[in-house]
Amino acid sequence: MADEDSSLAIWPEIEKAEKENRRELVLQGSAFDKKIQDSCGLHPRLYSLSLLNYLEISQCPSLHEIHENIRHLSHLQSLILCRNKLTSVPKSIGDLKAIKVLDLSVNQLQALPEEICALSELKTLNVSCNSITSLPDGLSKCVKLASINVSKNALSRLPEDLWCSNLELLSSIIASENAIEELSSDVHKLAALKVLDLSCNKLQELPFELADCSKLKETNFKGNKLKDKRLEKMVNGCQTKSVLDYLRAGGRGKGKGKQQDGEAGEKADAGRNVSKKKSAAKQKGKKEAEEVDELNRMVVRVLHVSEAPTAVTVKVSAGIKDVRPYIVCCIVKGMNLRQGNSLKRFLVAQTKLHDDICAKRTTATIATHDLGLLKAPLTYDARSPDTLKIVPLGRKEIKASDLLKHLQQEADEQRKQKKRQNVSGLHKYLQLLDGKELYPCLVDADDHVVSFPPITNSERTKIKKTTQELFLEVTSSTSLQICKDVMDALIIKMAELNKLSFDIKDDVGSDEETDVISDRPAENPASPELTVLQVKVFDVEGNLKVVYPSKTDLMSDLSNLSVIR
User: Fold this and answer.
1) CA dist., res. 358 & res. 482, Å (int)
2) How many CB atoms lie within 10 A of CB 197?
3) Count of CB atoms situated within 10 Å of the CB of 445
4) Does the reported pTM lie above 0.70?
């Protein structure tokens, strides 16, 4: 096997990763596919890069297998092996105990090894667009699993232990376009389930217990021939609330659980009287508690985007699909950045989100802009490194290719000066673009690049203390749900910071990053309430791809957060 042939000339990308103790490595596209074809597989030295925490090998149709030596990459947190032609996954993948994101989508897999169930840190599993006939039993051992996508396979059933209360974080199940015949009545055990897509399967019934999924806000059962034709009509109309209400009532208006005789009715009346007395006794204390809670309450108000031509929209170009396909955006009004260290606290919080939920920008990247400096409509595009030009934060306009060269030189200098391998700032993210022939970018109506994820934003739209309305953007190469989760976390953090600024009422200070503070006198906001305005994302044909926030977004469990829709 070529993977075991140590006589092969080492690939420059692998040699560079070894020399610099890289934490991330991306091998993508036709150039690497040619190397894989010539070598009859991946170079064996790849499996010696034990410091890697992010590995992406994608768009390489000559890649048919991964060697069992993948087990040596024990620090991997994200393994992206999408859009290849893998026919199998080695059992040794179960030794990657630190894996959080596993993407095996768009391959030729027919089965998954049981050892996947040993990945106790796994949060996101994507095996869509394969030919998998069954999933391994034991997924309930992946107790941190939050999202699973098994769409476009050949599944006739989902494993019983997928509906296990151990999976208390599982919020999204996408299993569309299979041959699944039954939805388990244990679905209600998934306490965190928000999204359930079983469209285009072979379901004939939906269990009443589905209505007991308290957080379920988005369902899709289209394309199933249900026995209950009234329910099928609701399903095809995507009326999630109506579907759940119908199931809760027992279907066909039967009113499941209703008392049918007079005696039961009398008992119910007596019970209600007792309940009223207890409720009245608790009312006073409850009201006092609510008054205290109200002082700590954060409020986020969602405004639905109008159909007016002035609404900010984003068009996604066709070329971005194989580069960094996922993006969600929104507009936030009411964020007070003028007072004291408010702006600094916001930037620090954004950095922390990048390190934590974004896994050091490997799963997603956040960008924030001054809406007043953006000219809509916007385009999410993919451009070659030599044609993409940007004015990076704190720098002059430069080609993306030259920017990365300068940043690499700075990183090398950092290593020499500090005599260590780790680097800081933007330099940490250079390797995320290794091997990419096109770079993602967000472009305004004047063709100015305002964002170059995952590297930098533009100085043109930089937020300042005087910024009154923010345009937020989250992009990812992993999944749309990750974009939404990160945006949720960002907005909730903004609500917390705005409440903090409102409560402490520190003085309006100078902004070192701003030459001029507005001549307009500082105004103390009447409340810390944030307003979030939806932004729609369309494809090149004008079809709606995503709108954020939708009804299923911003579903926080925080008791002191009120989301008004």
Assistant:
1) 9
2) 19
3) 11
4) no
C-alpha–C-alpha distance, residues 130 and 190, integer Å: 26
Q: Is the dihedral of CA 487, 489, 490, 492 positive or negative?
A: positive
Token pair 């297998």 in the structure block, residue: 65
Say how far apart CA 556 and CA 105 lie, in whole Å: 29
Q: What is the pLDDT of residues 462-493, one digit of tens each?
A: 999 999 899 999 999 888 888 998 999 999 99
One DSSP character per residue, 476-541 reads: ESS-HHHHHHHHHHHHHHHHHHHHHHHHH-PPB---TT-S---SSPP---S---EEEEEEEEE-TT
In the 8-state DSSP scheme, what is residue 253?
T
- pLDDT for 25-48, tens place per residue? 888 888 888 999 988 899 999 999
Q: Is the dihedral of CA 426, 432, 437, 441 positive or negative?
A: negative
Q: Which burial class, exposed, middle or buried, applies to 356 when counting CB atoms under 10 A from its CB (0-12, 13-18, 19+)? A: exposed
3-state SS, residue 3: helix
For the packed helices 480-504 and 342-355, what is the interaxial angle rounded to 10 degrees?
150
Interatomic CA distance for residues 212 and 253, integer angstroms: 17
The letter for the amino acid at 298 is M
Cα–Cα separations (whole angstroms), residue 363 to 360, 370, 464: 8, 24, 27
Q: Which element (helix H / strand E) includes 102?
A: strand 101-103
Q: Is 389 helix (H, G, I), strand (E, B) or coil?
A: strand
Give 466: exposed, middle or buried? Use CB within 10 Å, 0-12, 13-18, 19+.
middle
Beta strand spans in 265-344 (E): 298-303, 313-316, 326-333
**AA letter at 229:** K
Residue 429 CA to residue 454 CA, distance in Å, equals 7
Nearest to 123 by CA among 156, 151, 149: 149
**Cα–Cα distance between 391 and 24 in angstroms, integer?**
26
Q: At what angle do helices 229-236 and 240-248 cross, to 10 degrees?
A: 150
Q: Which two tokens stand for residue 251?
A: 């279907």
